[in-house]
Design goal:
Helix content: over 70%
Oligomer: single chain
Largest sheet: none
Structural class: mainly alpha
CATH topology: Vanadium-containing Chloroperoxidase, domain 2
Number of domains: 1
Number of strands: 0
């Protein structure tokens, strides 16, 4: 029994070490791609994440207000609430896990092109990008929506590694969280839409009937 536990412990340690090696080795390779075109692309994609993520539901909501279109309001709420959920989940995990940024842990192997004050795992930029891309693709399942959304979200994840601020595992976790929040939020929004819109319709009907 003792021999079995020793072998199991050795196997787990080896597996963990191997995963850690893959994480930093992959990051080192991606971070080393420092051509001018790649660097500028990463900088733009990384900075675009918060603006596009907030901008997409805001523009859809503005269109809904202009057209007085309830469906557009519902779409904006779904995409915006998916974004908010992904943001809350990632930041909660960041401070629970408290993983050190790669450029701090491996200063000899990772060069930071930007600096962050929050912990590393998971990537919040990637999470919000994948949340918006997934919820947008679910809402408007057309190739001309899905393809650009997927390319942009993946580019954000790549940019965070190229800038040296996240491990690949941070980015993968962020992508899973963001996409997962968008999928789960389909069911949450069914209740939210009933509460916000069907209740409003009932109230309007009651007012109309009273006249």
């Amino acid at each position: 029994m003792k021999r079995f536990l020793s072998v199991l412990l050795l196997f787990i340690c080896t597996l963990t070490l191997s995963a850690q090696n893959w994480d930093i080795n992959t990051l080192h390779t991606i971070n080393s791609w420092n051509g001018r075109g790649i660097r500028n692309y990463s900088k733009v994609m990384s900075k675009s994440a918060p603006y596009i993520s907030i901008g997409v539901p805001a523009v859809i909501a503005a269109c809904g207000a202009f057209k007085k279109d309830t469906k557009l309001y519902q779409d904006a709420i779904y995409i915006g609430s998916s974004l908010a959920e992904a943001f809350v989940v990632t930041y909660a995990l960041k401070y629970m896990i408290d993983r050190e940024r790669p450029y701090l842990k491996y200063p000899d192997r990772v060069h930071p092109y930007s600096h962050e004050s929050s912990p590393s795992f998971p990537s919040s930029h990637t999470a919000v990008a994948f949340s918006v891309a997934t919820s947008l693709s679910i809402t408007y399942p057309k190739w001309y929506v899905i393809a650009p959304s997927a390319i942009w979200a993946c580019s954000v994840g790549f940019s965070r590694m190229n800038e040296g601020v996240h491990y690949p595992s941070d980015v993968i976790a962020g992508a899973v969280i963001g996409s997962g929040c968008a999928v789960v939020n389909i069911y949450v929004n069914r209740w939210l839409n009933r509460w916000l819109f069907e209740g409003k319709k009932r109230n309007q009907a009651d007012v109309a009937w009273s006249f």
